C-alpha cells in the first residue's frame, strides 16, 4: 500500500511539472544535452572547448567534482588519523595542540573557511613573474600551482603492464604473508625482498624499452606559464579548507574508536614486549576500525556533497558549470537539477554500498 501511495504521489507531481512546462512552451526533455554550450570553462582535466555540447559540460563538472572530492577524502582521512593519534598522545603539549586544532576548526563554518583560504591566503600571492619556485620545477602564484606533467610514449605500454603484474603479485604476496603469520605467528621475510625485486623488474623494463616517458616542465612565457600541469587557486583553497575541516571530525572519530578498545590489550601487548608501533598497527587499529568505519562512511559521503560549496569561490565543479551557467543559458531548470541530483545520489550510493560491504566483512560475527 505504501509503495502504491508513493508511486502515485510521484506520478502526480511529475505529470504536474510536465503540464506546467508545456503551458510555458518548455516541453520536458533532455534534447538540449546535444546542443552547443558556447561558453568556456576555466579548468578541466578532460579536453573541452566552447564548441562542445552541454553533455560535455556535464561530464567536465562531474570529473572536476570527483577529483576534488577524492583528494579531500584521501588527505583528510590521513590527516584525521594523525590528529586522532595526537589527541591520545601522552605528551601534554601534543595532545593539547591537537585538541585546540579540533575545537577551532570544526566550530568555524566550512564556507567561511573556504572563503578565508581563497581571499586571505591564495589570492594575495604574487603574480606569475614573481612566483614562488621550488627547484625551478614547482611554481606557486595567485593563478595556481604549476608542476611538471608526464608525457607517455608508445613503448610505455609494456612498463604499465609490468607494473600492473607486479602490483597484483605484491597483493598475492601480502595475502600469503598474512596467512603465514596467522598460522605460524612469524612474519614472512620474503615479502619485502620480493617487493624490491619487482621494482627492479619494472625499472628494467622501463630502461629496455627506451625510457618511454619524459616530463614537461612549466616555463614562463610572457605573463603565464606554459606546459606542465596546474591547479587553480580556487581548487587549492577548496581542497585545503575542506581537508582541514573534515580532518578535525575524522580525528574525533579515530580518538573515540581507539578509546573504545579495552586498555587491557595495550597493557598485555606492552607486558610481552610488543613494540608500540606494532601494537597500534596490528592490535588497536584493526579493532578500532569496527567503530571508526560507520561514521567515516557518512563523513566521506558528506565530503562529496560539500564539494559543491566550491562554487562560492568560482571553482568549475558540477554545480558551477552545469547548475548555474548551463541552466541560465538553456532555461532547463527541472532537467538540470534532476541530472545534478542524480549524480550526487548515484555517487553517494556507490560509496555507501562499497564501504558497507567492507564494514560488514570486518565486523565480528556472532555464533
Description of the molecule:
The protein is an alpha+beta fold and 367 residues long. The chain has eleven helices and eight strands. It has two domains: 34 residues, no CATH class; 260 residues, MetI-like fold. The protein has a four-stranded antiparallel beta sheet. A hairpin with a 3-residue loop joins strand 1 and strand 2. Helix 2 packs antiparallel against helix 10 and helix 5 runs antiparallel to helix 6. The protein starts with a helix and ends in a 5-residue tail after the last helix.
Q: Radius of gyration, rounded?
A: 25 Å
Indicate the percent of residues in helices.
55-70%
Supply the CATH class of the largest domain. Mainly Alpha
Number of helical elements: 11
> Globular, elongated, flat, extended or rod-shaped: what is the shape?
globular
Q: How does the major sheet shape up? A: 4 strands, antiparallel
| Topology order in helix (H) and strand (E) letters | HHHHEEEEHHEEEEHHHHH
What number of domains? 2
**Total beta-strand segments:** 8
CATH topology of the largest domain: MetI-like fold
CATH superfamily of the largest domain: MetI-like
Q: Ranges with pLDDT <50 over ≥5 residues?
A: none
Tell me the strand order in the biggest sheet. Answer: 1-2-3-8
Average residue-wise pLDDT:
82
Q: How big a fraction of the residues is strand?
A: 5-15%
- CATH A-level architecture of the largest domain: Orthogonal Bundle
Distance between the termini: 37 Å
Which structural class fits the helix and strand makeup?
A: alpha+beta
Sequence-ordered SSE layout with sheet pairings:
Blueprint: H1 2-23, H2 54-87, H3 92-106, H4 110-122, E1 132-134, E2 138-141, E3 144-147, E4 149-152, H5 156-184, H6 191-208, E5 213-216, E6 219-221, E7 224-226, E8 229-232, H7 233-259, H8 263-271, H9 276-306, H10 318-330, H11 333-362
Antiparallel strand pairs: 1-2, 2-3, 3-8, 4-5, 6-7
Helix pairs in contact: 2-3, 2-7, 2-9, 2-10, 3-7, 4-7, 5-6, 7-9, 8-9, 9-11, 10-11
